[in-house]
Design goal:
The complex is a heterodimer. Helix content of chain A is 38%, strand content 24%. By secondary structure, chain A is an alpha+beta fold. In chain A, the strands form 2 sheets. An 8-stranded antiparallel beta sheet of chain A has the order 6-5-2-3-4-8-7-16. A 6-stranded antiparallel barrel of chain A has the order 10-11-12-15-14-13. By secondary structure, chain B is α+β, with helices and mostly antiparallel strands. Chain B has 2 domains: 68-243, Thrombin, subunit H; 245-387. In chain B, helix 4 runs parallel beside helix 7 and helix 6 packs antiparallel against helix 7 (360-387). The chains are: A alpha+beta, B alpha+beta. At the A-B interface, strand 1, strand 11, strand 12, strand 15 and helix 8 of A face helix 1, helix 5 and strand 16 of B.
Chain lengths: 365, 396
Amino acid sequence: MIMIFKKRIPLLLFIACCSVFSEEEPEAEEPHDEQQEENALIQSQFDYSFEDISDRLVAIKYEKGFGNGFIATMEGKTYLFTNQHIILGANQLSFTTAAGEKLRPRRIELSTTRDIARLLLADGTKGFKITKHMPMDSPVGLFGCREAGDEVALELYGTVTGVGADRVEISAEFSAKNSGAPILNIQQEVLGIASYVRKSRTHAMKEGTQFENRTRRFCFRLTGNQWKSVNWKKYNDKFGRFYHQNALFTDGVIEVLTEWGDTPRDRISVVEHPEKSLISWVTSHNQIIKIHGGPTQKKRFAAEYSKSLKTLSDTCARRARQTRMFSEKNKLTGFLRDELSRQASTLEWMAKLLTRISHNAQDYR
Amino acid sequence: MENRPLISVLNLLCILLLACMPLIAEEEEEAEDAEQTAEQEKLEKKEAMAKRRAAEQEIKSQFKYTFNDISKKLVTVTCDSRRGRSFGSGFVATLDGKTYLFTNQHVIIGADQISFKTAYGDTLRPRGVELSTTRDIARLLLADGIEGFEITRQMSIGAPLGVFGNSAGGGVATELYGKVTSMSSEIIDVSADFVSGNSGSPVLDLEQKAIGIASYVQWSIDDKYGSKTRRFCYRLTDNQWKSVNWKKYNGKYGRLYLENKQLINSIVEIFDTWYDDPFRRMTADTHPDSNIRKWSIEHNRIINRIMRLSDKGVASEHQLNNTNERIQQDLVDSADALSAVCRSRARQMRMLSTQRELTGFLREEFEKFADQLNSAAIRIDRYGKKLGTVKYFRFK
């Protein structure tokens, strides 16, 4: 007896879902000719360049990464500004201006609602002025460093294309890697801090409009913030590392699922990952493929295979619950609260998806 | 002579190869054609977009004021509820001698917390809520002294207009330009390409006067370039307003509105999944709606039973028929149960829509929900009947 309707593991569903994740932080696109001409026109309005302001641009280095920052004055004091997502979870941070001067911040304050951190610097440090005025269509420049080590200057030009109470949208085509860099006007004043890149989700309503498949780039405004002083070591140890670890876990699961989705009956080759629980799952899953993956034990294989996916689903669900709990802690600033809540939703979604596949894998032959 | 058989074989191979060549060439040609068509489509799309942008720039050039002159009157609306965060737009305008924040009812309904911030950075704190009795508009009273747009009923077909709001929920106000393409006493049809997130945006004329509020978009899924997509704005004049106790009104109907909207989405998702594969297990076992939850658990039990039967196998034709009948009956029962859930909820929605307290917008929404649920029930019944006739198992 055979079944007319056969069960299949929904590979396409997986692949589709993975592309949703990859939409979150798209890479910078190469500007086309017309765009390059337009950018050159905007650049010609700036009478200064990277070299003139390199003493106020900061390269931030940590164990395995690199980010941008800048020095600006606010409320009579001088601060180093960067994004919270750059410094959270890092064990060691070093701050060097693009001109080569080492900086030693004294205290950290976090914006209560936006992804910004300000680090108090010694009096007398030269910083940019901050402005509240950000006219639509006005020319802006993003200045930063491309890499750690021998910092390579980065200059991107564009205009203000959207204005909000706490953020502005600009056309300068920066990538997620450039976050933390300052957005300056032609008077060398800071309009905002490059913070995130988002690709519009496709929808029939957007077809044929400028919002179809559009990559949008947002910068948080520095004015109108509430600041909260934190004991950085404590805050980072408790929440920063958790946030960082979660991000690693989520990325790892996506990596595993992407590979698994291509060849569901093959062994998974992800063997190196900082998240130990994921590696131990991969090991046990590969064991199932090795022992029961042959043609003779189809039923047993289906049962074990399904159980293995359920184990990963349960791990995601457990983490989701823990993350949701953390996101409700009063001590958190708005950025981390929103981020943890977003991570919890992603983990819940992954758990749900894995449960569904695990259910269907019971009949996988 | 000895070589003849070899020559014959070679000839035969050549003939076969020649016969295959056109097939291979045809396949290659088809692939090339498909690539060319895709390239052509991409080019056409790019040209269409460039044309639209040029037309938009031409309209923008007619405006004597800029975005920066009006940024204090443009509002970004952020709503938080148990289901997450959503965004919309709003604006400040004066009507009947008072200053109000205008937005759509569908932007704020069901939200636990709402924040209103101008593009300039100011936070607005409205004092009371009034709802249009017939259109999807809410006006929220603001303190005296706040500057707002004037509202006008004057407009003509072809007149240039600007839509300023939170396009695609980016949290920033953007500018879009277009023309009035048609109008009635209640609604204006415009060519400005507004999208989700723009709901509640002001539609302004050349004199900075509000002629309407961006409210909804109608589109066709087979519309390649968005040319059949129509965008509608409600007029702000000649409305009847009803003052409501927002906390009470929203607590009673807003929650139901969002819950049922989500329920309908879930039913559509369930039906699509089931339609793709009759033996697919459902993942609605933890759904917030208890009826859907119960149905999903029971349905999964049925599927497990079917799978056990499939593994067990049968020995005779008679047993095979019995098994098929059993499966047919199980699936028909499950379809009946799901359509019963839809019908019962449709009745509730119909009843809810008759509540006197409701304004026109929510009344129509609940009626729409009832229609959608009834139509889902009909489709599920039809599918159930089909499932009741299929011979699932047969001998190899």
